Fold these 4 entries.
Entry 1:
Amino acid sequence: MKKTIDLLDRLYRGDTPTAIRFRFALLAMDLATITFFVALSMLAIQSPCITALNYIIAVYLIADLTARGLLRKRRLIYLLWPTTIADIVVVISLLFTPFVESLAFLRVLRALRLLQSYHMARDLRRIYPFFRKNESVIHAVLNLFVFIYVVSAVVLVVQMGRNPLIENYLDAMYFTVATLTTTGFGDIVLTGGSGRLLSIIIMIAGFALFLRLIQTIFQPSQVKHRCPDCGLTEHDRDAVHCKHCGRVIDIETAGV
């Protein structure tokens, strides 16, 4: 057992090229599973092949959960982490879809695992200058994507069968995007008290995420200005001193 844990520790936490390739393979698998879930939700296809893929993904998730659990000293706390609970729910929905079809939409919670690993984020920053330069934008886009996809699934589950305007996942996503951008065409509305409450949540939380993304893209938290003493090139927008050497710096601003 000790040899197995040591091997897992090298793969999940190591800095060797093999370990980095392994973690990138995990990221690729996460992307593939999310793509599969999105396509399955939109197309609503059921076949023996789809069932087999569900079981394969479930086995992969169980193996990944088990490996990560073995590396934790406090395994009970690990089991109570939101991402761990989300993965457990995903596994249940994959293994018992015929019996818990209403939980199928929770498979999208797998998206919460993307780019949340410290080691993966570190690897991406170190290897790819593009990610290092645009990390905040990438995280903002990811958060917005997860919100839209999860909330669209909730809208579908809450309204399907009782709202003739929402018959599939695409209808639910259309309503979600139109609502959080405040476009509000009015051709699709949610019915009932739960529908109105869900609309309020989408407008408040979703619009805040949307504004955050726009702010991150067009008004980055740091600006480029080279410190003449230490050479630091990135500073907070309202900085008056270099945070590295303390020199007074003169950053041009557009005013308050």
Entry 2:
Amino acid sequence: MITGAHTVLHTRDPERDRAFFRDVLGFEHVDAGGGWLIFALPPGEVACHSSEQDRHELYIMCDELDATVTELRGRGADVCGDVVEERWGRLTSIRLPGGGKLGLYEPRHPVPAH
């Protein structure tokens, strides 16, 4: 019944953020018309966390955080956060050209099969 998920990032500069996903992250994409790029994402997961407010976050995952940070910086990414060690993984963030942030983490928890 459910075939996938569509994630929307609201941004002040969608053209620059689309270029970042295309050129820096190297995500495959299609042009849905007029330069409106839709990106394929790697396999994903969703978790529900307790919160006093409704909000959503997007993290991209990697196998080795330090190596991924080095590679992304070499491609021009602004990795803007320190690496934080949590019991469930290591994480940092990437500043998008449009001003938003994208989480990046190396999970240390079981990952569902895809």
Entry 3:
Amino acid sequence: MTKIDPKKVYMLTKKIPRGKVTTYGEIAKVLGGIKYSRAVGKILNKNFDRHVPCHRVVCFNGKVGGFRKGIQRKIKILKKEGIKIRNGKVLNFDKVLFKFSKKVK
């Protein structure tokens, strides 16, 4: 089993622009495979660096997902950045979804 490097997860997460979101799976895909999306979530849950915008990472289907500081806090931050959310889901998900351009080793 390949381990996912937390530093690489944080590095990629920092690349998500304000007003965009990406998924745990998108980050995992860039780092070695979609099967590591749960590992990405666990790594981001342990993030204490305020410069890593882990609130911009959501579930594959646009659901907001978890957040160490609480889901309502995550929603509040996303809305402040211009992301529209209804019933715990990102609206216009395909338009605000950020995809990385290449794999990272």
Entry 4:
Amino acid sequence: MPYQSHSSAIIDHGAQIGEGSRIWHWVHVCSGAKIGQDCSLGQNVFIGNRVIIGDNVKIQNNVSVYDGVILEDGVFCGPSMVFTNVYNPRAEIRKMDQLRPTRVCRGATIGANATVVCGVTIGRYAFIGAGAVVTRDVPDHALVFGNPAHNVGWMCRCGERLTDDLQCPACSDRYETSADGIRMQDAAS
């Protein structure tokens, strides 16, 4: 087996799990899930059938990744954060045909107890603060907090908040404004 899983984990036949991934206590991975290499699924994680997870993704304890969610490479999902997949669910009415896909782009971080309402895209290297409620798309490198989440600054690829002049105090990378937010100077970020 190219990945590690705890004996309490349930991995349905047909699930694709990449080499080096680690699956911890009481995790359930459904049969249609695709999970990349070197991922970590913490305790009590659920991965739905129509979920795609890239390489080097870390999903902390108590997170459910429902059908229609795509997590690109290097995404971090903090403890007990929430994804939804139907905008206006009802228990008495089946609405899975109204599923709204959600994409979390490369390197993004979603803080503990944040909620991501379905149908949005979270940009590359964006940072969603703990407890935020994301109701609309988040630009690349944006730092968002609150309910509803709103932009309060910008983040470097290395995970540090940028200064007002869009320079990283940790790694000294510089960014510039662009039509859809910011981007690294002299390189695609």
